Amino acid sequence: MIAGLILCASLTAVDGDTVKCDGQNMRLLGEGVPFVSGIDTPEIGSHARCLKERKLALIAKGRLEELLTEKGLRVVFSGVADKTQAHRPLVNIYRANGKEIGRTLLEEGLARDWRPRHKNDWCS
């Protein structure tokens, strides 16, 4: 796969760190390095471990939805897909001001840093 700009006619939030571009789920990197670093947001719905996580997930998804309505977004494919069964492309989404959306979620406390073999606890 080749890294580069992705054009999306439709861009929506699936959860706080996954977007859907024209029907294809894509995972936000937050300017991280594939398989080394990235961002993580609370799990939504039945994937959440507790009510607190479920509520935080809805807040993160809502903020991502809000950010995705901005004009001038650029979706940049990293060149690789995640290792899940879905093989979601790993992407960065840059706002018109040059700031990456995942970094915005981190700065606002709606996401946390992701590292391999580390689970964020959203319930305590």
Main traits of this protein?
two-stranded antiparallel sheet, OB fold (Dihydrolipoamide Acetyltransferase, E2P), 30% strand, 6-stranded mixed β-sheet, 2 helices, globular, 124 residues, alpha+beta
Q: Count of helical segments?
A: 2
Just name the CATH architecture.
Answer: Beta Barrel
Classify the secondary structure makeup into a structural class.
alpha+beta
Residue share in helix: 10-25%
pLDDT averaged over residues: 95
Distance separating the two termini: 39 Å
Structure description:
This protein has helices spanning 51-67, 101-107; strands at residues 4-6, 11-15, 18-21, 24-28, 38-40, 74-81, 89-94, 112-114. The protein has a 6-stranded mixed beta sheet. The longest helix is centred in the middle third of the chain and has 17 residues, at 51-67. It is 19% helix and 30% strand. It contains 2 helices and 8 strands, in the order βββββαββαβ.
List the helices and strands and how they pair.
Blueprint: E1 4-6, E2 11-15, E3 18-21, E4 24-28, E5 38-40, H1 51-67, E6 74-81, E7 89-94, H2 101-107, E8 112-114
Parallel strand pairs: 4-7
Antiparallel strand pairs: 1-6, 2-3, 3-4, 5-8, 6-7
Gist?
With 124 residues, the chain is of the alpha+beta class. It is 19% helix and 30% strand.
